[in-house]
Prior knowledge:
- It is built from 17 helices and 8 strands.
- The protein is of the alpha/beta class.
- Strands 1, 2, 3, 4, 5, 6, 7 and 8 form an 8-stranded mixed β-sheet that branches.
- Helix 2 (46-59) packs across helix 9 (131-137).
Amino acid sequence: MRRRGGRRINLALQGGGVHGAFTWGVLDELLRDEDLSLGWISGTSAGAVNAVALASGLAGSGREEAQATLRAVWEAVETAGVPDLLRFNPLLFGFARAAPIAGVANFLSPYDFNPLGFDPLRRILTENIDFERIRTSSPVELLIAATDVATGRARLFRRHELTVDAVLASACLPNLHHAVIIDGRAYWDGGFSANPDLLTLAAESPVEDTLLVQLNPLYHAAVPRSAGEIADRVNTITFNQPLLRDVQAIVTAQEEDLGWFSSRNNRTGRLKRHRFHLIEAGPYTAGLSADTKLRPDKGLLTYLHGAGRAEAKKWLQAHRAAIGRHSTVDLRARFLEANGRAYAVDEGEVRSAVSGSEGRG
């Protein structure tokens, strides 16, 4: 996206399964703003899927193709859905009709119920994303995070080495899919180690503003009691920890008095100067169970996409002028303060959005 005398910004896209449709809505709205151009994109899991769809379209004819590619990918996700994974195993499909797929996967290994390693996302990506075009002519740099199974450390796949396997690795939930093997190493979902990577983005990108699209709520007041509620909370805590770790490192760098050591090209100095912005899905996802991340119902996708567009539009109206000047989110207050932040959830709206998903069985 060539700069037209406008404002430039990086994107950091968090993972969250089907809740990534919120990010699709955010990107859809950002692409409508001709005054805004993109620098680097860091993405994990669903964030990685959104990132490569965006990059593939921009590497083609530009903004409109990027919007069309994002829509095509998410429509394909809705069409494929969980049943594409289940219908190859009648036993698992029978269980899933009565219980959420996440619960079933807790006592059956994907190497048992899916011995051939079938993953509907592979077909969706290969049919809609031009990876060769991304590697050779994408106007945005990419950082796609996956987790090395042997070490637990993040592996960042960059634009020039990006393949469909890298994105599948970034989105590989180990209780649903076989580990993805790349160059002899096994990878799981990037959310375990970088969700998304903020440190590399802020330290290396020549663009000094980053917009984080956060899907997972950080704060839940109620103590979970049922097995399902406990599993949901464990999932949320696990996938938020890498983001909190990166924010802690950035806040430490920004609050330290480094004196002469904080040179313009020094890594710590770059973190200190970097400006951050935030669009969060929490008001819309806080009332959704973790199981909805795995059930791409059309009603839920439409609800989240519309919410993402609305939030992006509000953010642009309120903060466009701050890009290149100052941060619009206090990282310490938002992510690190002990009391957290609760969201007002419209229960009726949430029930309406997920009703179709609950009815599909």
